[in-house]
Every structure is written in structure tokens, then in C-alpha cells.
Amino acid sequence: MIPPKRDDVVIRAAWVLTAAASGAVRDGAVRIREGAVVDVGPAAEVLARAPEAPVVGDGTGIVAPGWVNTHTHLSEALATGMGSELTLFEWGQHIVGPVGDVITAEDAAEGTALRAVELLLSGVTCVNDMFVHANRGSFASLGVVEGLERAGLRGVVSFGAEDLADPDAGPWGGVEEILDEHHALHAAAAATELVTFRYGIGTLLGQSDALLAAGVDACERAGWSIHTHLAETREELVTAAGRWGRRTIPHAEHLGVLGRPVIAGHAVWVTAHDVDLLARREVAVAHNPVANMILGSGVCPVSALRREGIAVGIGTDGAASNDSQDMLQAVKSAALLQKVHALDPSVIDARTVFEMGTIDGARALGLSHLVGSIEPGKRADVVLYQDTVDVSVLHDPYGQLVYGASPRSVAAVWVDGRRVVDDHRCVSVDEVAQIARSRPLARHIARDSRLAREGRSVL
């Protein structure tokens, strides 16, 4: 269960990496109280101002803001480890399509709670999810809100509707029916403390023209921001040009999608014109290096995007296109992929990647006024890395965190001031019990879809 009370503690470490203008504080400390950061600075000074506060941390590790995972699909929580030799289009047809046809709200809630353990234990305190399904009438996406609440994890939720998952078969549901689920998900998020909503466009190609137009209209009427995918693969661009005479980013502009605040997953196959358009429209990008490598999709031009002032965050992508929700893997891969692609180790540095995973991710989601850095007044989404070989030697704390840390190092995590990881163990979700609840659900998904019949699952 989520701890009912928020901590009033001082968190101490060898380094506090603030992701703010103050940078790194050596022998630093952070005080949190009533869910907020109230003090940060040299440990001696913070402790002197709060002599009565309990102290967490022995002064040897790293304190940092929680990672902001800017793109995932918790609809894939129970569908890991399959299809790693498939392209994105094949993978969608043979893996996530069948899963989306049968997944339920219960699957969503339990799968989200399961993956929340993995997210929290890799230092994630905020996750931007797009739940993709086509199980008519189930309103399965609403289960994500329940799972996030149970875990005490901050989240942004969206329903990644794609009514043309099979263009030859026609839409699987009516436009009004699909919009009803968006409205229901918005209402479910609004009833929580830590979850907010974005309108989801799974992919432009996956939606009928009628749904695309209705979605833009709904966003304008309700003032909704948007979560989508753009320019992920070459096949996407060719297919879009054949359907509309435009690639997906220009078509998104034509439809009015880019007139709303947008975070777009991937942005791998972008032209110079696309980059200029994204910058002018202040579209944010979620870079998903692990999934892009597994699916052979390509390499996001992170440096080119950042040079134009585009907010680029880091995402794990879904558990079925990554096979993990370990954000530390994604952060490290974000650095390594840029270096090997450019054949230049200086193309990106550890501090830049750290900031992409924290404050830039928060900026990409429009949440930088609340989270993403450790500053007085911001919400207390804080991680302590300590006690392991991974963070025992800190010649460069940024480099060690980005390249050397693992989930073993995550000693404590606070989300909005509540301690949800303590002594390297998730305390908001019972990991053993959650695994036991999730296994039969994974078996039902394999059985009720075609995954087992096609030999892709042996459950």
C-alpha cells in the first residue's frame, strides 16, 4: 500500500544532482516536507536548518530527481519477450495487435502495477503512457489509472486509439464510441492526485480520417494536449505519402494536430523541414533508443533536434518493444546510440543525457513547473542511489549515474513526498504478490489472442 503520510526528512548524499541552475552540490542534502522540496544545498547547512528532521542516506551516494519516462505503452505490460526479429509493422500485426484485441481493464490495472515496480526500482517517478487496445466496449485503458494509483507513481495517461489497425477490414469501432473512452479516461485521471491526461493518437496511419478530424476537434474544444508517434519508420512515411500525398509530420500540421501541445514518440525519420516545423510548433520528442534498436527502426537525430530548441526526453517505450521498463537502460542507451551512430564519443555527454531524462522530460510533458529538478517549491520526486558497487566510486557523478548505475543502486524513491521504495524494495506494491496475480493474466492473453496458437508464446 502507498504510505499514507508524506515524509519530512533530510536526504543526504555525496552529490546532489539538481538538474537545475545550481547544478551539482557536493556533500549535499535535500529536505522534503509535505510533498515538496523545501531546502537543498550543502549538507551542513541543510542539517543546521532542520536539526530535528530524520536523515536518510549516509552521505556516500547520489541524490537526483526521479527519471521522467516520456513514452511507454503499459498495454504491453504482460506481453514481453516476443517478436524481437520483427519490423515495427510486422510486430504490430503479430504481437501488439492480437494483445490489444483481448486485453481488459483488469489486465491493464494488474500489468501497470507489475511494471510500476520495475519503473520505480529504476528510479522513475513519472511515466507518460499510451494504452493501445481494440477490445471493443472494455474501456481497458482506464485500468492504467488504477494501477498507477496503487503504485503511487505519477503518470500521464492516454488512449492510443487506432480504428484502422486493419485498413482492409475498416474501423473496429465508431468515432463516438472511441471518443467516449477518451472522455472516460480523462475523467478517471481528473479524479486522482498524481495522474493527468493527454489525448492519444496511436499513429496517424492507424486512424480513419473521420477519427483524426474528430480528435483534433475534441482537443480544441477541451483544451487537451496530445501524445502520439511521428516519423518512427521509413515504411510509415512511404505509406503516408501514398494515402495523403504527405509524410506524417506535414500531415499532422495539415490536420491541426500540431496546433495543440504535442509530445511525439521517436521522430527518427525527420527532414530538415520537419525539424523546423516541430521547433516552430514547440512539439516535444520522446527518444526511445532501446525500442528503436530492437525493431531496427533507426536513430533519432537527438543533437539536431536539441540544436533547434526542441525538448527531447527519454522513454523506455512499451514493455513488448523493449522487453523491459528499466529506465536506467534507456538512459545509458540514449548516450551510447548517439556516440556509435556519429562515430564520435564527444557528440553527447553524461550531464546532457541526465538532463534529458529529468528536467527535459518534464519540460516535454509540460510538467517542469512541478517536477524534473530538485528545487525549493517543486514536488518531492526524488531518488537516492546508494549502497552498491555501481555508485561506490564517484569520480564523476553524472557519468557514474548515466553509464554505471543499475536498479540495484536505487535505495529509496519518493513520489510527491511519499516513500514508495525503501531499502531497495518497492513498498507501494508487493512485488511477489503482484507477480503471482499477473502470471494467469499473461496466460489468458496468450490463450485468447493468437500468440499461443502461432507459437509466439509458450505460456
Topology overview:
Elements (H helix, E strand, L loop, with lengths): L8 E9 L6 E10 L2 E7 H7 L5 E2 L5 E4 L1 E6 L15 H15 L2 H16 L3 E8 L10 H10 L2 E6 L15 H16 L4 E3 L1 E3 L7 H14 L3 E5 L3 H11 L3 H8 L6 E5 L5 H9 L3 E4 L1 H6 L7 H6 L4 E3 L4 H4 L4 H16 L7 H8 L1 H6 L17 E4 L11 H8 L5 E6 L2 E5 L2 E2 L4 H18 L11
Parallel strand pairs: 1-4, 1-5, 6-7, 7-8, 8-9, 10-11, 11-12, 12-13, 13-14
Antiparallel strand pairs: 1-2, 2-3, 5-15, 15-16, 16-17, 17-18
Helix pairs in contact: 3-4, 3-17, 13-14, 13-16, 14-16
Describe this structure as you would to a colleague:
This protein has 459 residues and is α/β, with parallel strands linked by helices. 39% of the residues lie in helices and 20% in strands. The protein has 17 helices and 18 strands. Strands 1, 2, 3, 4, 5, 15, 16, 17 and 18 form a nine-stranded mixed sheet that branches. A hairpin with a 2-residue loop joins strand 2 and strand 3. Helix 13 packs across helix 14. The radius of gyration is 21 Å and the shape is globular. The two termini are 30 Å apart. The relative contact order is 0.17.
Beta-strand residue fraction: 15-25%
Number of helices: 17
Number of strands: 18
Largest sheet: 9 strands, mixed
- Oligomeric state: single chain
Could you tell me how far the N terminus lies from the C terminus, measured between alpha carbons in angstroms?
Answer: 30 Å
Q: What form results from the Cα inertia axes?
A: globular
Indicate the percent of residues in helices: 25-40%
- Give the class from helix and strand content and strand pairing: alpha/beta
Would you tell me the overall average pLDDT? 95
Low-pLDDT segments: none
Q: Whole-number radius of gyration?
A: 21 Å
